[in-house]
Amino acid sequence: MEHRTKLNFRLRQLPQYARAACLAFIVALTVGYLTGLGFVLQTDSNTTVGMQENYNGNEDSPDVMVMKFKKSPREMLTIIHTHVLSLSLIFFASGVLLFFSQAPKKLKHFLLVEPFISILVTFGGIYLLWYGWSFMAYIVLFSGVLMTLSYFLGIAFVLIEIFRKE
Description:
The chain is built from five helices and no strands. By secondary structure, the protein is mainly α. The chain has one domain (15-163). Helix 3 packs antiparallel against helix 4, helix 3 runs parallel beside helix 5 and helix 4 (105-131) packs antiparallel against helix 5. The longest helix has 28 residues, at 136-163. The chain is elongated. The protein starts with 15 loop residues before the first helix and ends with a helix.
């Protein structure tokens, strides 16, 4: 027999100072997220070719502006370790706030779970790409875009909830 509890609390019910703290957190988190996206653009990892060059190097290509070398196993472990941990915490923290929003239930369920799947697919795919499975660049690109869209859609629902009057 399953027992269900209905939670009716919403972020908009928080006192003004608590909503202001949530807003400040979301702004700081989003600045950090956008900085990470800026780094992806800076390294040309937003294309399949750029991604392959970033992790596997381009020293064999004759006409390159910036020479890149294949990442070492230690570099790959560091990249994967730090990103999986930090992004998991980012999505958990923003997901807690999203949970207390009035987003449609099925969409909220998707936005609470999908980013964690995308984290594993993205960084598992980056490892496999580095390992030599070049087709993984397409999967990494897709899962990275899906993760980013999920982040901003979830944050939009949180912001709507913070600014909504009770």
